[in-house]
Amino acid sequence: MKRRDPISVSVDSLDAEGKGVGRNPEGKVVFVEGALAGERVVAAVVRSKPAFDVLQTLSVHKAASGRRAPRCPHFGVCGGCATQHADAQTQMAAKQRGLEDCLARIGKVRPGSLLPILYGPEWGYRHRARMAARWVAKKGGALVGFHERRSSYVADMQSCEVLPPAVSALIGPLRELIDRLSIRERLPQIEVAVGDTAIALVFRNLEPLSTQDEEALRDFAEQHRIWAWLQPGGPATARPFHPTQGPVLDYALPEFGVRIGFGPTDFTQVNHPVNRVLVQRALRLLAPAPGERIGDLFCGVGNFSLPIATTGAALVGLEGSAALVERARDNAIANRLEHRASFHVSDLTGAAAETLAREGPFDGLLIDPPREGAIDVVKALAEPLPRRVVYVSCDPATLARDAGVLVNLRGYRLQAAGVVNMFPHTAHVESIALFER
Fold it and tell me: Is 402:349 a contact under the CB 8 Å cutoff?
């Protein structure tokens, strides 16, 4: 067998990234893009490593029951989605198994129970996105969208099934707009932020716009009813361009009677409907009570904080970003919860012990860290320890690592854990876990 010849592979399982797992005829482990558990496929090697190969499916001889036709015509070329060929149950079962494997292998822990998977809309869900932009003469003009799979090239796309329809419809007009700009080769990115009633687009401009460029962008913003921003440098340089006093960007958490405002470059969850049920589950697990003191670590704009404050508990939100803390304070005031919720700029990494000693103790904690996890926080927890910790994670590996510390060193029990369908068709895994003393 020549190394690059197509081979027949039986797929035994699906990994958390949506690749089929099996062995080639020589016994080497292979990860097969476009294949599902239980299938037999013909595939070709696209990347080879000493311990494994990555293959791309060419044809399917025996299809799994969970296979379906991808909805997007760009699937397979665009790298934005990995698993449109699998139904939601197949995707989420693989992510649940991936979470369980990480907890057992990395954290050496096992949850007392598995939480039911939280499902939500699969299409039009992505309310936050960073689209690449590139002017390519050989393609006849500008490209706007996500990168191609395993490539730095921008996919040649006219629509996107996971973006809200109103944003997907802007891809073609955005390509036409960039074609007309004098800085068309110096505009590499467009960030999308969608609220309940408004859409903001942040244009990353590496050079100033000309007068004609500014006129074209104003016309585009008015014609398509979007809020245009410019970002000449890092995130802190983002400023509204047109209109200068824009609409309100926010989303509702109707179960708690609050609205959460945010800026176009602020971190928010990408899937608003799933976020609503995630917040509900987090509060049920945490069970804050009137009179208790609850800490929300990495609180951001107050996504979990304000619902917790509606229960009558005293909420303390800690966050490293001063801009996000200011936004959370504004949200508390707008929702008339400032007397129940306080927010502080806090170092939850290098100075986590000092921060928790100063701001604690807490009866309960909600932790929603970035992908790097909250290892400094869980190591710094001191007596009296919170009775309950609810940990929301976007990376099963760092959750598992931190769970090992909480259970094996701090004396908590991992009562329950489960996955959330926050990012359909992608390899990203959102999960939630409950720890109790």
Answer: no
Both structure tokens of 364: 């309960």
Structural domain contains residue 257: no
The residues that bridge with 314 in the sheet, in sequence order, are 293
Is 329 in the same domain as 396? yes
Residues 284 and 385 in one domain: yes
Q: Which residues pair with 345 in a beta bridge?
A: 319
- Structural domain boundaries enclosing 47: 7-67
pLDDT at position 64 is 93
Instruction: Provide the H-helix boundaries in 18-59.
Output: none
DSSP codes of every residue in 65-90: TTB---S-TTBTTBSS-S-TTB-HHH
CA angle 264-267-270, nearest 5°?
Answer: 90
CA quadruple 41, 42, 47, 51: dihedral positive or negative?
positive
Output the pLDDT for position 336. 98
Q: How far apart are CA 398 and CA 420, in angstroms?
A: 16
According to DSSP, residue 411 is labeled -
pLDDT in tens, 233-281: 998 999 999 999 888 999 999 999 999 999 999 999 999 999 999 999 9
Catalytic residue positions? 394
pLDDT digits over 318-377, tens only? 999 999 999 999 999 999 999 999 999 999 999 999 999 999 899 999 999 999 999 999
Total domains in the chain come to 3
Are the beta carbons of 14 and 20 closer than 8 angstroms?
A: yes
What CATH number does the domain containing 421 carry?
Answer: 3.40.50.150
Q: Does the residue 37 lie in any domain? A: yes
Nearest one of 63, 60, 7, 64 to 30, comparing CA atoms: 7
